[in-house]
Amino acid sequence: MGSLYGGTLVTIKGENFSNEPLDNPVKIGSHYCYVITSTPSEITCRTDYLLDQESGDQLLLVFLKTSEEAASEQDILFNFVAPKAEVLDIRAEFDTTTLSYQVFVDGTLLDESVQLVIDGLEQELISVTES
C-alpha cells in the first residue's frame, strides 16, 4: 500500500531476479516502479510520481531480463491510497551554523514516517512535529 501520488518505496521478494537493477523492470498498473536495488531474491523500487492515479488496487508485475513476466501463484496487488497527511508549504533556508540548507515542510498529520526525496535522494530527517 502507498500514496496515490507516488514516491512509495516497495520491496518485492522472490527468486531468479538479476543483480542488475535494469534487468527487472517493475510496473504497478500502468505506471513504472523505478528499481533502486536488485538481488537474486529481492527488488526495491520507488513508485512513480503520479498525478492521474486513483485510489484502489493495481496489479504489480515484475519483468525478467528475457522480457517475460515473472510467475506468481496469485496476483500481487498494490493498493494506492490517499495520504492522511497534507503538505501545505515547503521552504529551504540556509543554516550558517552547519553551512547547509535545511528544508522545512509545513502540513497536517505529519509523523516519523515522513520521507523527503529530492532528485531521487532521500533527505535526512532532523525533527518532526504533527505540523
Assign the CATH class of the largest domain.
Mainly Beta
Q: How would you sum up the major sheet?
A: 7 strands, mixed
Low-confidence stretches: none
- Per CATH, the architecture of the largest domain is Sandwich
C-alpha geometry: globular
Distance between the termini: 24 Å
In percent terms, what proportion of residues is strand? Answer: over 45%
Structural class call reads mainly beta
Mean pLDDT: 88
CATH topology of the largest domain: Immunoglobulin-like
Q: Given the structure, what is the number of helices?
A: 0
Number of strands: 11
- The structural domain count equals 2
Estimated helix fraction:
under 10%
Radius of gyration: 17 Å
Short summary:
By secondary structure, this protein is an all-beta fold. It has two domains: 2-81, Immunoglobulins (Immunoglobulin-like), CATH 2.60.40.10; 86-122, no CATH class. The protein has strands at 2-3, 9-13, 26-28, 31-39, 42-47, 56-62, 77-81, 86-95, 100-108, 117-118, 121-122.
